[in-house]
# Entry
Amino acid sequence: GENVEQHPSTLSVQEGDSAVIKCTYSDSASNYFPWYKQELGKRPQLIIDIRSNVGEKKDQRIAVTLNKTAKHFSLHITETQPEDSAVYFCAASDSNYQLIWGAGTKLIIKP
Amino acid sequence: KAGVTQTPRYLIKTRGQQVTLSCSPISGHRSVSWYQQTPGQGLQFLFEYFSETQRNKGNFPGRFSGRQFSNSRSEMNVSTLELGDSALYLCASSTNRGPYEQYFGPGTRLTVT
# Structure
């Protein structure tokens, strides 16, 4: 079945710098790749998603890239701010449309 | 539209007891998924219901069960509670069979003593 690996587990960056989180998946039939942000004590919320017919998608400071050949996708956050501190989860849909989740990345923004 | 709601928000149970958690999806959403989240851990998938049918199931023991009603509201039940069942239980609803964005509820914090 589908397996999603997410790296790194913790990422610490200086405020204003960029952050990149990477995920790899195993099922070549996967066609939907969302990224969720979970702030401390809150519910996960979708921040950006991409489908397999698109290579890149951007929303202000956030972008996601997808490499179907290599089966990996990445979240890019530019000009990081304190409010970007959270746990980020990637996911990939399997052939049954179930979302398979990565283990999460704790992003720490240093002032 | 009202968001996903879960009741109760907090629950304390004793080992060996059983518990039922409830999830009301966003109006019009027919898919409800349940997740277990322990401190510092990711989202462990329990099961997904769509139009009252369980369509996907994670790797949890049979003590964990669920159901969905005709109005798409869903319940999950945990029987014979163990200390390790202490966790945040999240449900998420989606408009269709998938894959689409999942909207999460606030969760039910279950503590087993």
